[in-house]
UniProtKB/TrEMBL annotation, chain A:
Entry keywords, A to Z: Signal
Signal peptide interval: 1-21
Keyword Signal found: yes
Protein name: Putative L-sorbosone dehydrogenase
Xref: PANTHER family: HEDGEHOG-INTERACTING PROTEIN, MEMBRANE PROTEIN
Source taxon at top rank: Bacteria
InterPro entries per record: 6-blade_b-propeller_TolB-like (IPR011042), Beta-prop_PDH (IPR054539), Quinoprot_gluc/sorb_DH_b-prop (IPR011041)
TrEMBL record, chain B:
Entry-linked Gene3D superfamilies: Cytochrome c-like domain
Lineage: superkingdom: Bacteria
Protein name: Putative cytochrome c
Coiled-coil annotated spans: none
PROSITE patterns: CYTC
Organism: Flavihumibacter petaseus NBRC 106054
Length: 422, 133
Protein backbone atom coordinates (compact mmCIF):
# COMPACT_ATOMS: atom_id res chain seq x y z
CA UNK A 1 0.00 0.00 0.00
CA UNK A 2 2.81 2.35 0.90
CA UNK A 3 4.19 2.06 -2.59
CA UNK A 4 0.92 3.06 -4.18
CA UNK A 5 0.64 6.12 -1.98
CA UNK A 6 4.20 7.07 -2.81
CA UNK A 7 3.65 6.78 -6.52
CA UNK A 8 0.48 8.77 -6.59
CA UNK A 9 1.92 11.39 -4.29
CA UNK A 10 4.92 11.65 -6.57
CA UNK A 11 2.78 12.10 -9.65
CA UNK A 12 0.53 14.56 -7.90
CA UNK A 13 3.30 17.10 -7.55
CA UNK A 14 1.11 19.33 -5.40
CA UNK A 15 -2.19 20.64 -6.67
CA UNK A 16 -3.59 20.52 -10.16
CA UNK A 17 -5.19 17.76 -12.10
CA UNK A 18 -3.35 14.79 -10.80
CA UNK A 19 -4.85 13.83 -7.52
CA UNK A 20 -3.22 12.18 -4.56
CA UNK A 21 -4.27 8.92 -3.00
CA UNK A 22 -6.59 9.46 -0.06
CA UNK A 23 -6.48 7.79 3.34
CA UNK A 24 -5.93 4.18 2.53
CA UNK A 25 -4.71 3.13 5.97
CA UNK A 26 -7.98 1.50 6.99
CA UNK A 27 -7.83 -1.49 4.76
CA UNK A 28 -8.32 -5.09 5.65
CA UNK A 29 -8.46 -8.44 3.98
CA UNK A 30 -12.04 -9.29 3.29
CA UNK A 31 -13.43 -12.78 2.52
CA UNK A 32 -12.52 -12.39 -1.17
CA UNK A 33 -8.90 -11.76 -0.23
CA UNK A 34 -8.76 -8.28 -1.71
CA UNK A 35 -8.32 -5.07 0.25
CA UNK A 36 -11.21 -2.64 0.49
CA UNK A 37 -11.77 0.42 2.70
CA UNK A 38 -13.04 -0.05 6.22
CA UNK A 39 -16.78 -0.62 6.32
CA UNK A 40 -16.79 -2.41 2.96
CA UNK A 41 -16.86 -6.12 2.37
CA UNK A 42 -15.78 -8.06 -0.70
CA UNK A 43 -17.04 -11.49 -1.64
CA UNK A 44 -16.61 -13.71 -4.69
CA UNK A 45 -19.96 -14.36 -6.35
CA UNK A 46 -18.75 -16.36 -9.37
CA UNK A 47 -15.48 -17.90 -10.51
CA UNK A 48 -13.74 -19.71 -13.36
CA UNK A 49 -15.96 -18.05 -15.95
CA UNK A 50 -13.30 -17.54 -18.64
CA UNK A 51 -11.95 -14.24 -19.89
CA UNK A 52 -14.61 -12.09 -18.24
CA UNK A 53 -14.36 -8.61 -19.73
CA UNK A 54 -17.23 -6.16 -19.16
CA UNK A 55 -20.28 -6.81 -17.01
CA UNK A 56 -23.80 -5.37 -16.94
CA UNK A 57 -26.44 -5.68 -14.24
CA UNK A 58 -30.11 -5.82 -15.22
CA UNK A 59 -32.74 -4.10 -13.02
CA UNK A 60 -33.77 -7.44 -11.48
CA UNK A 61 -30.20 -8.32 -10.47
CA UNK A 62 -29.44 -10.67 -13.35
CA UNK A 63 -25.85 -10.22 -14.58
CA UNK A 64 -24.53 -10.39 -18.13
CA UNK A 65 -20.82 -10.85 -18.79
CA UNK A 66 -18.96 -10.61 -22.09
CA UNK A 67 -16.16 -13.08 -22.66
CA UNK A 68 -13.16 -12.11 -24.76
CA UNK A 69 -12.71 -15.68 -25.97
CA UNK A 70 -15.46 -18.22 -26.41
CA UNK A 71 -15.90 -20.72 -23.64
CA UNK A 72 -17.66 -23.93 -24.69
CA UNK A 73 -18.42 -22.09 -27.90
CA UNK A 74 -20.25 -19.21 -26.19
CA UNK A 75 -19.28 -15.59 -25.62
CA UNK A 76 -22.00 -14.15 -23.35
CA UNK A 77 -22.88 -15.37 -19.86
CA UNK A 78 -26.11 -14.78 -17.99
CA UNK A 79 -25.85 -15.21 -14.24
CA UNK A 80 -28.76 -15.39 -11.85
CA UNK A 81 -29.01 -15.75 -8.11
CA UNK A 82 -32.42 -17.40 -8.27
CA UNK A 83 -32.67 -18.21 -4.55
CA UNK A 84 -31.16 -14.89 -3.47
CA UNK A 85 -28.44 -16.40 -1.32
CA UNK A 86 -25.60 -14.32 -2.76
CA UNK A 87 -24.19 -16.96 -5.06
CA UNK A 88 -25.09 -16.88 -8.74
CA UNK A 89 -25.77 -20.55 -9.23
CA UNK A 90 -27.74 -20.30 -12.45
CA UNK A 91 -25.37 -19.70 -15.37
CA UNK A 92 -26.47 -19.89 -19.00
CA UNK A 93 -24.56 -18.82 -22.09
CA UNK A 94 -25.09 -17.84 -25.71
CA UNK A 95 -23.57 -15.76 -28.51
CA UNK A 96 -20.93 -17.22 -30.81
CA UNK A 97 -18.50 -14.27 -30.75
CA UNK A 98 -15.83 -13.07 -28.36
CA UNK A 99 -15.59 -9.43 -27.36
CA UNK A 100 -15.59 -6.90 -24.55
CA UNK A 101 -18.60 -4.58 -24.50
CA UNK A 102 -21.91 -5.32 -22.77
CA UNK A 103 -24.77 -3.13 -21.56
CA UNK A 104 -28.43 -3.35 -20.57
CA UNK A 105 -30.65 -0.47 -21.65
CA UNK A 106 -34.37 0.01 -22.23
CA UNK A 107 -35.23 -3.67 -22.31
CA UNK A 108 -32.34 -4.68 -24.53
CA UNK A 109 -29.01 -6.38 -23.99
CA UNK A 110 -26.20 -4.87 -26.10
CA UNK A 111 -22.99 -6.83 -26.68
CA UNK A 112 -20.00 -6.22 -28.92
CA UNK A 113 -17.61 -8.39 -30.87
CA UNK A 114 -14.35 -6.82 -32.06
CA UNK A 115 -16.03 -5.43 -35.18
CA UNK A 116 -19.77 -5.19 -34.44
CA UNK A 117 -22.43 -4.38 -31.85
CA UNK A 118 -25.49 -6.61 -31.44
CA UNK A 119 -28.59 -6.37 -29.33
CA UNK A 120 -31.07 -8.86 -27.90
CA UNK A 121 -34.61 -8.21 -26.68
CA UNK A 122 -35.02 -9.00 -22.98
CA UNK A 123 -38.27 -10.21 -21.42
CA UNK A 124 -39.44 -9.09 -17.99
CA UNK A 125 -37.29 -11.75 -16.32
CA UNK A 126 -34.29 -10.37 -18.18
CA UNK A 127 -34.06 -13.46 -20.32
CA UNK A 128 -33.12 -13.47 -23.99
CA UNK A 129 -35.86 -15.33 -25.82
CA UNK A 130 -34.06 -15.86 -29.10
CA UNK A 131 -30.36 -16.09 -28.28
CA UNK A 132 -29.49 -17.20 -31.81
CA UNK A 133 -30.87 -14.15 -33.56
CA UNK A 134 -29.40 -10.89 -32.31
CA UNK A 135 -30.04 -7.67 -34.22
CA UNK A 136 -26.81 -6.37 -35.75
CA UNK A 137 -26.93 -2.69 -34.81
CA UNK A 138 -23.43 -1.77 -36.02
CA UNK A 139 -21.15 -3.85 -38.25
CA UNK A 140 -17.91 -3.52 -40.18
CA UNK A 141 -15.87 -1.65 -37.59
CA UNK A 142 -12.11 -1.67 -37.92
CA UNK A 143 -10.47 -4.70 -36.31
CA UNK A 144 -6.76 -5.14 -36.86
CA UNK A 145 -6.13 -7.13 -33.66
CA UNK A 146 -4.37 -4.34 -31.74
CA UNK A 147 -6.74 -2.32 -29.49
CA UNK A 148 -9.69 -4.09 -31.07
CA UNK A 149 -12.03 -4.16 -28.03
CA UNK A 150 -15.24 -2.31 -28.90
CA UNK A 151 -16.27 -1.01 -25.51
CA UNK A 152 -19.75 0.52 -25.51
CA UNK A 153 -21.96 2.94 -23.56
CA UNK A 154 -25.51 4.26 -24.05
CA UNK A 155 -26.94 7.66 -23.19
CA UNK A 156 -30.56 8.45 -22.26
CA UNK A 157 -31.33 9.79 -25.69
CA UNK A 158 -31.19 6.64 -27.80
CA UNK A 159 -27.51 6.85 -28.71
CA UNK A 160 -24.90 4.15 -28.64
CA UNK A 161 -21.24 5.11 -28.18
CA UNK A 162 -18.56 2.74 -29.42
CA UNK A 163 -14.83 2.94 -28.87
CA UNK A 164 -12.84 2.18 -31.99
CA UNK A 165 -9.29 1.86 -30.71
CA UNK A 166 -6.39 2.76 -32.99
CA UNK A 167 -4.52 -0.33 -34.22
CA UNK A 168 -1.30 1.51 -33.49
CA UNK A 169 0.89 2.88 -30.73
CA UNK A 170 1.67 6.34 -32.07
CA UNK A 171 0.68 6.29 -35.76
CA UNK A 172 4.19 5.69 -37.05
CA UNK A 173 4.51 4.57 -40.67
CA UNK A 174 5.67 1.21 -39.27
CA UNK A 175 3.98 0.67 -35.94
CA UNK A 176 6.22 0.49 -32.84
CA UNK A 177 9.29 0.43 -35.05
CA UNK A 178 12.38 2.36 -34.09
CA UNK A 179 13.25 5.09 -36.57
CA UNK A 180 9.86 5.07 -38.32
CA UNK A 181 8.35 8.58 -38.51
CA UNK A 182 4.88 9.65 -37.36
CA UNK A 183 2.22 10.10 -40.05
CA UNK A 184 0.96 13.68 -40.02
CA UNK A 185 -1.99 13.85 -40.48
CA UNK A 186 -2.60 10.40 -39.05
CA UNK A 187 -4.84 8.48 -41.52
CA UNK A 188 -5.97 6.06 -38.80
CA UNK A 189 -8.13 8.80 -37.27
CA UNK A 190 -10.62 8.50 -40.16
CA UNK A 191 -11.80 5.10 -38.98
CA UNK A 192 -10.36 4.59 -35.47
CA UNK A 193 -8.69 6.35 -32.55
CA UNK A 194 -11.95 7.77 -31.26
CA UNK A 195 -15.51 7.28 -30.09
CA UNK A 196 -18.26 6.84 -32.68
CA UNK A 197 -21.90 7.61 -32.02
CA UNK A 198 -24.72 5.53 -33.50
CA UNK A 199 -28.45 5.23 -33.07
CA UNK A 200 -29.18 2.67 -30.37
CA UNK A 201 -32.05 1.03 -32.26
CA UNK A 202 -31.34 1.28 -35.95
CA UNK A 203 -30.07 -2.00 -37.41
CA UNK A 204 -27.22 -2.40 -39.91
CA UNK A 205 -25.33 0.83 -39.26
CA UNK A 206 -21.66 1.30 -39.99
CA UNK A 207 -19.28 4.26 -40.38
CA UNK A 208 -21.56 5.94 -42.91
CA UNK A 209 -24.55 6.04 -40.57
CA UNK A 210 -22.49 6.82 -37.49
CA UNK A 211 -20.64 9.93 -36.47
CA UNK A 212 -17.15 10.39 -35.12
CA UNK A 213 -18.11 11.86 -31.77
CA UNK A 214 -14.64 12.30 -30.27
CA UNK A 215 -11.19 11.81 -31.78
CA UNK A 216 -7.56 11.69 -30.71
CA UNK A 217 -8.19 8.80 -28.33
CA UNK A 218 -5.68 5.99 -28.79
CA UNK A 219 -7.71 3.29 -27.07
CA UNK A 220 -10.63 3.60 -24.68
CA UNK A 221 -11.78 0.46 -22.95
CA UNK A 222 -13.55 2.25 -20.09
CA UNK A 223 -16.36 4.67 -20.89
CA UNK A 224 -19.60 5.64 -19.17
CA UNK A 225 -22.44 8.03 -19.72
CA UNK A 226 -22.75 10.32 -16.72
CA UNK A 227 -26.48 10.91 -16.29
CA UNK A 228 -25.83 13.47 -13.59
CA UNK A 229 -24.42 15.96 -16.10
CA UNK A 230 -25.47 14.18 -19.31
CA UNK A 231 -22.01 13.85 -20.81
CA UNK A 232 -19.76 11.02 -21.95
CA UNK A 233 -16.64 10.27 -19.90
CA UNK A 234 -13.80 8.06 -21.08
CA UNK A 235 -10.46 6.77 -19.82
CA UNK A 236 -7.65 6.38 -22.33
CA UNK A 237 -4.82 3.88 -22.54
CA UNK A 238 -1.85 6.15 -23.22
CA UNK A 239 0.96 5.35 -25.62
CA UNK A 240 3.80 2.91 -24.93
CA UNK A 241 7.52 2.53 -25.49
CA UNK A 242 8.99 6.03 -25.22
CA UNK A 243 12.37 4.61 -24.16
CA UNK A 244 12.50 1.70 -26.65
CA UNK A 245 11.69 4.05 -29.54
CA UNK A 246 13.55 7.17 -28.34
CA UNK A 247 16.34 6.12 -25.97
CA UNK A 248 18.11 9.44 -26.62
CA UNK A 249 15.14 11.32 -25.11
CA UNK A 250 13.78 9.02 -22.41
CA UNK A 251 15.37 6.61 -19.93
CA UNK A 252 13.59 3.53 -18.56
CA UNK A 253 12.28 5.36 -15.51
CA UNK A 254 10.82 8.23 -17.54
CA UNK A 255 9.33 5.75 -19.98
CA UNK A 256 7.69 3.87 -17.10
CA UNK A 257 6.19 7.09 -15.74
CA UNK A 258 5.12 8.70 -19.02
CA UNK A 259 2.58 9.38 -20.26
CA UNK A 260 -0.31 9.67 -17.80
CA UNK A 261 -3.43 7.57 -18.28
CA UNK A 262 -6.15 10.19 -18.78
CA UNK A 263 -9.79 10.57 -17.77
CA UNK A 264 -11.71 12.92 -20.06
CA UNK A 265 -15.14 14.37 -20.36
CA UNK A 266 -15.68 14.27 -24.12
CA UNK A 267 -18.24 16.49 -25.75
CA UNK A 268 -19.30 16.20 -29.35
CA UNK A 269 -16.30 17.05 -31.52
CA UNK A 270 -13.65 16.69 -28.80
CA UNK A 271 -10.04 16.10 -29.86
CA UNK A 272 -7.93 14.58 -27.10
CA UNK A 273 -4.62 14.72 -28.97
CA UNK A 274 -3.49 11.22 -29.93
CA UNK A 275 -1.15 10.49 -31.71
CA UNK A 276 0.37 13.96 -31.79
CA UNK A 277 0.34 14.63 -28.06
CA UNK A 278 0.61 12.87 -24.74
CA UNK A 279 -0.02 14.10 -21.20
CA UNK A 280 2.96 14.50 -18.88
CA UNK A 281 1.70 14.14 -15.29
CA UNK A 282 4.72 15.88 -13.79
CA UNK A 283 4.71 18.91 -16.06
CA UNK A 284 0.91 18.78 -15.94
CA UNK A 285 0.48 19.50 -19.61
CA UNK A 286 0.15 17.86 -22.96
CA UNK A 287 3.39 17.76 -24.91
CA UNK A 288 4.24 16.93 -28.50
CA UNK A 289 5.04 13.25 -29.09
CA UNK A 290 8.58 12.51 -30.34
CA UNK A 291 7.21 10.97 -33.56
CA UNK A 292 5.97 14.46 -34.43
CA UNK A 293 9.04 16.46 -33.48
CA UNK A 294 8.53 16.56 -29.73
CA UNK A 295 11.41 16.67 -27.25
CA UNK A 296 9.46 15.94 -24.06
CA UNK A 297 8.79 19.65 -23.40
CA UNK A 298 7.48 21.30 -26.54
CA UNK A 299 3.71 21.86 -26.46
CA UNK A 300 2.99 23.17 -29.96
CA UNK A 301 -0.53 22.15 -31.09
CA UNK A 302 -1.07 20.17 -27.88
CA UNK A 303 -2.15 23.23 -25.89
CA UNK A 304 -5.37 23.25 -27.95
CA UNK A 305 -6.34 19.66 -27.25
CA UNK A 306 -8.94 18.60 -24.68
CA UNK A 307 -7.14 18.31 -21.34
CA UNK A 308 -7.76 15.46 -18.89
CA UNK A 309 -9.87 15.88 -15.77
CA UNK A 310 -7.71 13.36 -13.93
CA UNK A 311 -4.25 12.03 -14.79
CA UNK A 312 -3.21 8.64 -13.44
CA UNK A 313 0.21 6.98 -13.40
CA UNK A 314 1.38 5.67 -16.75
CA UNK A 315 0.50 2.34 -18.38
CA UNK A 316 -1.99 1.20 -15.71
CA UNK A 317 -4.52 0.29 -18.42
CA UNK A 318 -7.92 1.62 -17.33
CA UNK A 319 -10.35 -1.03 -18.59
CA UNK A 320 -13.61 0.13 -17.04
CA UNK A 321 -15.23 3.36 -15.86
CA UNK A 322 -18.40 3.54 -13.77
CA UNK A 323 -20.17 6.48 -12.19
CA UNK A 324 -21.74 5.31 -8.95
CA UNK A 325 -25.36 6.39 -8.76
CA UNK A 326 -26.47 4.19 -5.85
CA UNK A 327 -27.28 5.26 -2.32
CA UNK A 328 -25.85 2.27 -0.45
CA UNK A 329 -22.26 3.54 -0.28
CA UNK A 330 -21.44 6.53 1.98
CA UNK A 331 -22.44 9.92 0.55
CA UNK A 332 -18.99 10.85 -0.75
CA UNK A 333 -19.16 7.99 -3.26
CA UNK A 334 -22.37 9.28 -4.86
CA UNK A 335 -21.81 10.30 -8.52
CA UNK A 336 -18.12 9.52 -8.13
CA UNK A 337 -16.09 7.50 -10.61
CA UNK A 338 -14.76 3.98 -10.13
CA UNK A 339 -12.03 2.90 -12.52
CA UNK A 340 -10.78 -0.66 -12.96
CA UNK A 341 -7.09 -0.74 -13.85
CA UNK A 342 -6.11 -3.92 -15.64
CA UNK A 343 -2.47 -3.38 -14.65
CA UNK A 344 0.62 -2.38 -16.59
CA UNK A 345 3.17 -4.18 -18.76
CA UNK A 346 5.02 -1.28 -20.33
CA UNK A 347 6.65 -0.15 -17.06
CA UNK A 348 9.25 -2.94 -17.35
CA UNK A 349 12.07 -3.13 -16.33
CA UNK A 350 10.53 -1.20 -13.43
CA UNK A 351 7.93 -3.08 -11.35
CA UNK A 352 4.42 -3.15 -12.79
CA UNK A 353 1.58 -1.08 -11.30
CA UNK A 354 -2.20 -1.00 -11.30
CA UNK A 355 -4.16 -4.23 -10.90
CA UNK A 356 -6.57 -2.30 -8.68
CA UNK A 357 -9.85 -0.38 -8.64
CA UNK A 358 -9.64 3.36 -8.04
CA UNK A 359 -12.21 5.86 -6.81
CA UNK A 360 -12.40 9.56 -7.75
CA UNK A 361 -15.00 11.72 -5.95
CA UNK A 362 -17.02 13.87 -8.38
CA UNK A 363 -19.39 16.79 -8.04
CA UNK A 364 -21.40 18.03 -11.00
CA UNK A 365 -19.18 16.19 -13.44
CA UNK A 366 -15.91 17.57 -12.04
CA UNK A 367 -13.43 15.75 -9.82
CA UNK A 368 -14.03 16.87 -6.23
CA UNK A 369 -10.97 15.38 -4.57
CA UNK A 370 -7.90 13.22 -4.95
CA UNK A 371 -8.07 9.78 -6.51
CA UNK A 372 -7.57 6.86 -4.19
CA UNK A 373 -7.10 3.13 -4.46
CA UNK A 374 -10.45 1.61 -3.53
CA UNK A 375 -9.90 -2.12 -3.97
CA UNK A 376 -6.47 -3.68 -4.22
CA UNK A 377 -4.66 -6.99 -4.07
CA UNK A 378 -6.22 -8.63 -7.15
CA UNK A 379 -2.80 -9.73 -8.41
CA UNK A 380 -2.19 -11.74 -5.24
CA UNK A 381 1.36 -10.35 -5.16
CA UNK A 382 3.04 -7.55 -3.26
CA UNK A 383 4.93 -6.60 -6.40
CA UNK A 384 4.06 -7.60 -9.96
CA UNK A 385 7.25 -8.10 -11.96
CA UNK A 386 5.67 -9.71 -15.02
CA UNK A 387 1.97 -9.37 -15.90
CA UNK A 388 1.81 -13.12 -16.39
CA UNK A 389 2.31 -13.57 -12.65
CA UNK A 390 -0.87 -11.68 -11.70
CA UNK A 391 -3.55 -14.05 -10.42
CA UNK A 392 -6.42 -11.71 -11.28
CA UNK A 393 -6.72 -8.48 -13.27
CA UNK A 394 -9.70 -6.12 -12.85
CA UNK A 395 -11.42 -5.52 -16.18
CA UNK A 396 -15.11 -4.72 -15.82
CA UNK A 397 -17.37 -2.80 -13.42
CA UNK A 398 -21.10 -2.72 -12.79
CA UNK A 399 -23.41 -1.36 -10.16
CA UNK A 400 -25.86 -3.98 -8.94
CA UNK A 401 -29.45 -2.95 -8.12
CA UNK A 402 -28.64 -3.53 -4.44
CA UNK A 403 -26.07 -0.73 -4.62
CA UNK A 404 -22.99 -2.95 -4.52
CA UNK A 405 -20.08 -2.68 -6.94
CA UNK A 406 -19.22 -5.67 -9.12
CA UNK A 407 -15.73 -6.24 -10.50
CA UNK A 408 -14.80 -8.81 -13.16
CA UNK A 409 -11.37 -10.35 -13.68
CA UNK A 410 -10.30 -11.63 -17.10
CA UNK A 411 -7.52 -13.96 -15.98
CA UNK A 412 -9.54 -16.56 -14.06
CA UNK A 413 -13.01 -15.19 -14.63
CA UNK A 414 -13.68 -14.25 -11.03
CA UNK A 415 -16.50 -11.85 -10.16
CA UNK A 416 -16.15 -9.80 -6.97
CA UNK A 417 -18.96 -8.05 -5.18
CA UNK A 418 -18.05 -5.11 -2.95
CA UNK A 419 -20.79 -3.99 -0.54
CA UNK A 420 -20.95 -1.41 2.20
CA UNK A 421 -21.64 -2.84 5.64
CA UNK A 422 -21.13 0.30 7.70
CA UNK B 1 18.82 -49.33 -42.44
CA UNK B 2 19.02 -45.97 -44.12
CA UNK B 3 16.67 -44.61 -41.51
CA UNK B 4 18.84 -45.84 -38.69
CA UNK B 5 21.97 -44.34 -40.20
CA UNK B 6 20.19 -41.07 -40.84
CA UNK B 7 18.88 -41.15 -37.28
CA UNK B 8 22.33 -41.78 -35.89
CA UNK B 9 23.71 -38.97 -38.00
CA UNK B 10 21.08 -36.59 -36.65
CA UNK B 11 21.84 -37.70 -33.11
CA UNK B 12 25.54 -37.21 -33.69
CA UNK B 13 24.96 -33.82 -35.21
CA UNK B 14 22.78 -32.86 -32.26
CA UNK B 15 25.35 -34.07 -29.75
CA UNK B 16 28.01 -32.20 -31.62
CA UNK B 17 26.16 -28.91 -31.87
CA UNK B 18 25.00 -29.16 -28.26
CA UNK B 19 28.60 -29.35 -27.13
CA UNK B 20 29.63 -26.32 -29.16
CA UNK B 21 30.40 -23.54 -26.70
CA UNK B 22 28.61 -20.26 -27.32
CA UNK B 23 30.79 -17.47 -28.71
CA UNK B 24 32.60 -15.63 -25.96
CA UNK B 25 30.70 -12.66 -24.53
CA UNK B 26 27.63 -13.26 -26.73
CA UNK B 27 25.28 -13.90 -23.80
CA UNK B 28 26.37 -10.75 -21.96
CA UNK B 29 26.12 -8.61 -25.09
CA UNK B 30 22.83 -10.22 -26.07
CA UNK B 31 21.35 -9.54 -22.65
CA UNK B 32 22.06 -5.82 -23.10
CA UNK B 33 20.50 -5.75 -26.56
CA UNK B 34 17.48 -7.56 -25.11
CA UNK B 35 17.10 -5.04 -22.28
CA UNK B 36 16.95 -2.05 -24.65
CA UNK B 37 15.00 -3.56 -27.52
CA UNK B 38 12.88 -6.48 -26.41
CA UNK B 39 12.37 -6.45 -22.64
CA UNK B 40 9.53 -3.92 -22.54
CA UNK B 41 7.34 -6.28 -24.56
CA UNK B 42 8.65 -9.75 -23.79
CA UNK B 43 9.47 -8.89 -20.12
CA UNK B 44 12.66 -9.53 -18.14
CA UNK B 45 11.82 -13.18 -17.58
CA UNK B 46 10.77 -13.71 -21.20
CA UNK B 47 7.24 -14.56 -20.11
CA UNK B 48 5.58 -11.94 -22.35
CA UNK B 49 2.22 -10.28 -21.65
CA UNK B 50 -1.04 -12.25 -21.78
CA UNK B 51 -2.94 -11.62 -25.04
CA UNK B 52 -0.44 -8.96 -26.19
CA UNK B 53 3.12 -10.23 -26.51
CA UNK B 54 4.11 -13.91 -26.59
CA UNK B 55 6.47 -15.72 -24.29
CA UNK B 56 9.95 -16.54 -25.54
CA UNK B 57 10.27 -19.60 -23.32
CA UNK B 58 10.43 -22.86 -25.25
CA UNK B 59 8.47 -21.66 -28.26
CA UNK B 60 9.03 -23.38 -31.61
CA UNK B 61 10.07 -20.03 -33.14
CA UNK B 62 12.79 -19.42 -30.55
CA UNK B 63 14.20 -22.92 -30.23
CA UNK B 64 13.64 -23.99 -33.83
CA UNK B 65 14.99 -23.00 -37.22
CA UNK B 66 17.45 -20.12 -36.93
CA UNK B 67 16.84 -18.80 -40.42
CA UNK B 68 13.14 -18.30 -39.67
CA UNK B 69 13.96 -16.78 -36.30
CA UNK B 70 16.37 -14.25 -37.83
CA UNK B 71 13.65 -13.26 -40.28
CA UNK B 72 11.16 -12.58 -37.49
CA UNK B 73 13.66 -10.16 -35.98
CA UNK B 74 14.57 -8.51 -39.29
CA UNK B 75 11.04 -8.19 -40.69
CA UNK B 76 8.82 -8.28 -37.62
CA UNK B 77 5.59 -10.26 -37.44
CA UNK B 78 1.98 -9.15 -37.58
CA UNK B 79 -0.27 -12.12 -38.12
CA UNK B 80 -2.23 -14.38 -35.83
CA UNK B 81 0.16 -16.91 -34.32
CA UNK B 82 -0.73 -19.31 -31.52
CA UNK B 83 1.54 -20.26 -28.64
CA UNK B 84 0.21 -22.41 -25.81
CA UNK B 85 -3.33 -21.76 -27.04
CA UNK B 86 -2.93 -17.99 -26.85
CA UNK B 87 -2.76 -15.38 -29.59
CA UNK B 88 -1.37 -11.86 -29.41
CA UNK B 89 -2.81 -8.58 -30.54
CA UNK B 90 0.36 -6.48 -30.67
CA UNK B 91 2.56 -6.49 -33.73
CA UNK B 92 6.19 -7.51 -33.43
CA UNK B 93 8.12 -4.57 -34.87
CA UNK B 94 11.04 -5.10 -37.23
CA UNK B 95 14.37 -4.85 -35.44
CA UNK B 96 16.31 -4.21 -38.64
CA UNK B 97 17.90 -1.13 -37.03
CA UNK B 98 20.09 -3.50 -34.99
CA UNK B 99 23.44 -4.55 -36.45
CA UNK B 100 23.98 -8.12 -37.62
CA UNK B 101 26.17 -8.73 -34.58
CA UNK B 102 23.52 -7.33 -32.21
CA UNK B 103 20.84 -9.56 -33.73
CA UNK B 104 23.16 -12.57 -33.51
CA UNK B 105 23.89 -11.80 -29.86
CA UNK B 106 20.30 -11.17 -28.81
CA UNK B 107 19.13 -14.36 -30.49
CA UNK B 108 21.93 -16.38 -28.94
CA UNK B 109 20.88 -14.88 -25.60
CA UNK B 110 17.18 -15.62 -26.12
CA UNK B 111 17.93 -19.17 -27.29
CA UNK B 112 19.87 -19.76 -24.07
CA UNK B 113 17.68 -18.01 -21.50
CA UNK B 114 14.22 -18.47 -19.96
CA UNK B 115 14.78 -22.23 -19.81
CA UNK B 116 15.82 -22.46 -23.49
CA UNK B 117 18.87 -24.26 -24.75
CA UNK B 118 20.00 -23.77 -28.31
CA UNK B 119 22.83 -23.22 -30.70
CA UNK B 120 24.32 -19.79 -31.24
CA UNK B 121 23.31 -17.47 -34.06
CA UNK B 122 26.21 -15.89 -35.92
CA UNK B 123 26.45 -12.44 -37.46
CA UNK B 124 27.24 -14.10 -40.81
CA UNK B 125 23.88 -15.90 -40.72
CA UNK B 126 22.12 -12.60 -40.10
CA UNK B 127 24.06 -10.94 -42.94
CA UNK B 128 22.93 -13.69 -45.32
CA UNK B 129 19.27 -13.26 -44.35
CA UNK B 130 19.43 -9.47 -44.50
CA UNK B 131 20.79 -9.62 -48.07
CA UNK B 132 17.69 -11.55 -49.13
CA UNK B 133 15.36 -8.79 -47.93
Amino acid sequence: MKKIILISAFLAGGAGLTAKAGDTTNVYHSPANIKVPKGFEATIIADELGRARHIAAAPNGVLFIKLERLKNGRGILRLQDADNNGSYEKVTSFGNYGGTGIAVKNGYLYASSDDAVYRYRLNENMEVADTGKPEAIVTGLLNKRQHSAKAIALDNNNHLYVNIGAPSNACQVADRTKGSPGQDPCPILDSAGGIWQFSADQPAQSYKEGKRYATGLRNVVGLDWNSNVNELFVVQHGRDQLATLYPELYNDKQSAELPAEELFMVKDGANCGWPYCYYDGQQQKKVLAPEFGGDGKKEARCADMVQPLVAFPAHLAPNALLFYTGDKFPARYRNGAFIAFHGSWNRAPLPQEGYYVVFVPFEKGQPAGKWEVFADGFSGLTEVKSPNDAKHRPCGLAQAPDGSLLVTDDVKGTVYKISYKG
Amino acid sequence: MYKIIAGAAVLLALAFTARQPLPKGSLERGKKVYATNCLACHQADGSGVPNLNPTLAKTPQVTGDRQKLINIILKGLDEEIEINGESFSNPMPSQAHLSDQEIADVLTYVRNSFGNKGTAVSAAMVTTERKKM
